[in-house]
Amino acid sequence: MRGWCRSPFRSPAEWVGLVAFALAAGLLCLHPFLSMFPLAGFLLCCLVAPLLPGSGFFGPVISRGRPEKNAVALTFDDGPDPETTPLLLELLARYQAPATFFVNGNKAARFPKIMRQLLAHGHSVGNHTYTHDNFIMLKSHGALLGEMVHTQEVLAPFGIIPHAFRPPVGVVSPRLAGVLRQTGMYAVNFSRRAGDRGNRRVRGIAGRILRRLRAGDIIMLHDTRPHGQGQLGPWLDEVEQVLVGIGERRLQVVSLAELIDRPVMSVRETVAQSPRHDRFGG
Question: Contact, 249 vs 72, CB < 8 A?
Fold first, then answer.
């Protein structure tokens, strides 16, 4: 599956680095200036890779699902939000569309009622750090670990254990793979996004998502309140157009877990599961 690092021992970044240094050493014998080129190429890869959501350069990242399922998965980032998430849940229920919510731990702690609502509707939950620090991948191993573990601790009282982690803004770094191993999670990014800048750019969301949409896509949207007066209605209309457009393209909306054949979260046995949760999967 595209987006996975296939080597169980070294990331592509490590292999490219080894090759770059070997080439640099060989070229050094010919001319010191030539040895700079493979090292500069490796540095360029390291600078560009974090900005590519589907890149597994620094470690395994899932960015697409199985295309043979003829389906796509919906994901929503940065919630929950008391103004938008309940309305979104109603819309998804009308279309019987499952979704995965990559939540921020601080918002999940502030709005427990909404967390219970989205779980009762049968949707799954992923970890999206505690504070959504856009620069967390540039900070220390301990800082990233703390953000992820704190969110897991916040979500535990809801009876769930998320296994899927989405980095803020989809940016990855060399330290992410180690933290994922330490926490027992895996990284999920996306293959289709709306370019909505966190719902600051609502107009045209549906068109940007549906353009070149194909089977296996993981769609990334936001369930934060739109910026600007009177944008809540237009935002809901855009999300509904996405749902309608998926059907018009003869694609199904399935749970992220079904699309990637991997559990997104576990539910503790002591927490009762609703029939919708069983149907959508986790």
Answer: no
